[in-house]
Amino acid sequence: MKIKIAKDAGYCFGVRDAVNLAYDTAEKYGNVYMLGDIVHNERVVSDLNNAGAKIVDNLNDIPDHSPVLFRAHGTRQDIWEDAKKRNLDIIDATCPLVHEIHHEVKKLEKEGRKIIIIGDHGHDEVIAIANQAKNPLIISNKEQAKNIRKIKKAGIVSQSTQMIENVQEIISVLMKKIFDLRFVNTICFPTKRNHEQIKSMAEDNDIMIIIGSFTSANSKRLTELSKQRNDNSYQVTCADDLNLSWFRGVDSVGISAGASTPDYLIKEVEDKIKNIDKDRI
Ligand code: SF4
User: Fold this and answer.
1) In terms of pTM, does the model score above 0.85?
2) What is the DSSP letter of 162?
3) Residue with the nearest Cα to atom 8 of ligand 1?
4) Do residues 218 and 39 touch, judged by C-beta distance below 8 A?
5) Distance, CA 10 to ligand 1 centroid (Å)?
6) What's the confidence (pLDDT) of residue 279?
């Protein structure tokens, strides 16, 4: 069986830097606190926990002067302020591309535009983007776009990991409802590359395996994009989830992984597939 791994499968640079920073800080201080999971991957969170990176629900659970790491997908402004008041040692692991989205939102608002965010309701990155503006609208699909009232002047950004197809559908609905619309395409370049690669790989291979946690919106989107082009697309969290029957009669396998999937999980899946004896399935 030929196996091809997507060039940009797995950690994006923003997540990789944040995870490394968490390990370095835990080593330096003995521990580090984080508000929620640093990435949507249970194995990474558990490994980090063993290294001294503790997850807490709110700042009250962190002793004064302790290090707190703000995660790659951004943090609400009031939490920044609160952490400073409590004299916590803030380690900022916000991805520079997420900082860029916050900056764009502020610029659009200064132009007198109503802010619209195309993204998943309740996702931490979207919550932090929304926190940069006054009463922004969050829209996740075209049905929601159809339900908004007419707006005179609006500025639109998207969550960094959105699919361009979803963003385009929503914008085409909004164009009929907004007189003066400015859209800044804030889908990040690692996401764009990963999405483009999976589209062509799904067409070129007999089967597609996407590695990622089912709590990761990013991994689920990759699976969705792959399934649209190849029915033989399966999401797995690790090598144990592989089902041998999927590989019957298969000559080529494409592998990709969400931005929160560590390299070792990709390697484990690759090794297991390499060892499949097709004749014995
Ligand atoms: S998905 Fe994009 S914006 Fe988010 S952390 Fe990775 S590189 Fe940064």
Assistant:
1) yes
2) -
3) 14
4) no
5) 11
6) 74
